[in-house]
Amino acid sequence: MSIIDIINKKRNRKQLTREEIEFAVNGYLDGSVKDYQMSSLLMAIVLNGMTARETIDLTDIMIKSGDVLDLSKIDGIIVDKHSTGGVGDKVTLVLGPLLASLGIKIAKMSGRGLGHTGGTIDKLEAIEGFNTKLSEKKFIKQVNDINIALVGQTADLVPADKKIYALRDVTGTVESLPLIASSIMSKKIASGADIIMIDVKVGNGALMKNIDSAKALAKLMVKIGKAYRKPTICLITNMEEPLGNAVGNSLEVKEAIDTLKGNGPSDLLEVVITLCSIIIGAVNKMPNNEAKNLLFKQLNNGEAYKKFEELVKAQGGKINNIKISDKVFSIKSDREGYINNIDALHIGEIAKKIGAGRNTLDDKIDYEVGLVLNKKVGDYVEKEEELVKVYLKDKDISISEILECFTIEEELKSNPKLILDIIK
Ligand code: URA
């Protein structure tokens, strides 16, 4: 078998056999397939696609490239939730403790932010002392003790994805449904949960830019989940404007805390409650309305926040030490009208520029900086009224660049829906 024959076969739109995919992936891991050859094969996959069978084989080969977590020592049904990435997406920080406060086991390995999107692990590390690296034994014990543990992915989990994803990131080969689906699902399946819930973000701030590709990705991931007998549910949600008001690590943790205390922004709350009620339905077969009532009760009676405090304490964090910069600027609107759009991608890029995100995995994050939107899509703004508060440290912003993110018009356009579809 030769890697050149495999590249040519995919270039000529033919299906690869499992052995051929194995040859390429394992060869790339052991160095016998070179970066330039793997890039070429990845580009052929981006252009010519993969069948469901090839995608499931690729997922399986990636899973087998490393360790698979054995969570059988955790009592009860274990849930993992994943987001395909967005701006202001602090859903896991609320959803995890909220479900754990109801006895549902959350054993979750999260990622770091890259590009304009944030990552749960970076947000948690904004809490002084929070340890995102637990041994497997401690991880399992903590889930058994308090129903929840949130940690980073270990180096041994799906090493093939780690190496291939890093290459995709710098070769224009991220945007491919089979490559994205196999990358996400290999990590979810190797993480050992019983039920996989995926929030597929769609819109200009997301990887999926339109609803058709988001649905196709969701269907593919559900199919992969079925092949492993892991119920996989995808919720497709809008990511045209940032989720909630806060963008930036410490600011997002503070907003998550407000939400856990029952004072969250309505869009964040809607996504959290929808995802949680679906999960409760899958775990306990509880009707949706009953589940929603229960969830609101946990937010309003302090139980969800109490669970978050327990989680932070168990992982060494100091909940009262979440630093936010005191260099704050108020950006005011230069006109009056209805806000018909807030460009999530652009806001995410501004947040990254001021230090809240990174360009490469080695960049250091400034947890204290970010933006808080004072207005959301559908709101009316007066001239000179505040649109955004910006928290800065050592980098500057351009006011006009921030104002450009807002589309302000005389007429109110119809409000876009937040929850677009459920695929299972
Ligand atoms: N997230 C992943 O983990 N992998 C992808 O390919 C895209 C988003």
Provide a descriptive summary of the structure in words:
- With 424 residues, the protein is of the alpha/beta class.
- Helices cover 44% and strands 16% of the residues.
- It contains 16 helices and 13 strands.
- It has a 6-stranded mixed β-sheet with strand order 3-2-1-4-5-13, sandwiched between helices. The protein has a 4-stranded antiparallel β-sheet with strand order 6-9-11-7.
- Helix 5 packs across helix 12 and helix 5 packs across helix 14.
- Bound molecules: uracil (URA).
- Uracil (URA) binds next to helix 9.
Structure summary, number of beta strands? 13
- Roughly what fraction of the amino acids lie in strands? 15-25%
- Quickly count the helices: 16
| Helix and strand run | HHHHEHEHHEHHEHEEHHHHEEHEEEHEE
Beginning-to-end CA distance, first to last residue: 38 Å
Largest sheet: 6 strands, mixed
Strand order of the biggest β-sheet: 3-2-1-4-5-13
Question: What small molecules does this complex bind?
Answer: uracil
The pLDDT mean sits at: 95
Oligomeric composition of the shown chains: single chain
Q: Would you tell me the structural class of the helices and strands?
A: alpha/beta
Q: What gross morphology would you assign?
A: globular
Kindly provide the radius of gyration, computed on alpha-carbon positions and rounded to a whole number of angstroms: 22 Å
Percentage of residues assigned to helices? 40-55%
Uncertain regions spanning at least 5 consecutive residues = none
